[in-house]
Protein 1
Amino acid sequence: QVQLVESGGGLVQAGGSLRLSCAASGRTFSSYAMGWFRHAPGKERDFVAAISRGGGTTTYTDPVKGRFTISRDNAKSTVYLQMNSLKSGDTAVYYCAAVRSGYSVTYTSDRAYDYWGQGTQVTVSS
């Protein structure tokens, strides 16, 4: 069982930056691939970024490539999402998710993940 708690959301002007954190409970964090998803009003939940259990493999959705960076600190059982050059279209509730996985694997489908956080709101004003 893994419990995930996101933090770091807030209100930011377009062009600004935020760093989201997702802290995981348990002592086996390094066994889990992690992902970030976002859900904007009136839209489906969308994949944002994913990272393998060791951190060596990352995957991003095209709209955030070059602006967002996913990383993890297994010693702190935390995954991060650094978001730069934010746009109004990035406004959403952001969720982190976890799934036990093999090495060097990332998942872009939300159906692959077993554990989810409660979400953190990111609002980008134009």
Protein 2
Amino acid sequence: QVQLVESGGGLVQAGGSLRLSCAASGRTFSNYGMGWFRQAPGKEREFVAAISGSGDFTYAADSVKGRFTISRDNAKNTVYLQMNSLKPDDTAVYYCAASAYCSAYGCYGATHYAYWGQGTQVTVSS
């Protein structure tokens, strides 16, 4: 079992920045690929960014590319999502997720992730 706890969400004005953190416990953190997903009211959960277990491979959705950066610190068992130039459309609950399957290269699909955090709310005002 892997337990995930997100933090860092909040209310920010458009153009501002936030950094989300996701602390993991329970297993060897570097054995898991990590992902960030988000879900806005009335919409399906969507992929935001992913990172391999080593941190060598990262991916970002087109909608956030150039604005959001995923990173990880395996010594601290934590994955981060740095969000810059935030837009009102970024408003959502953000979830981190862990997957042993995605360890080598990271992956996009939510179905590959077995463990999920409880989510943290990000609200961007215009």
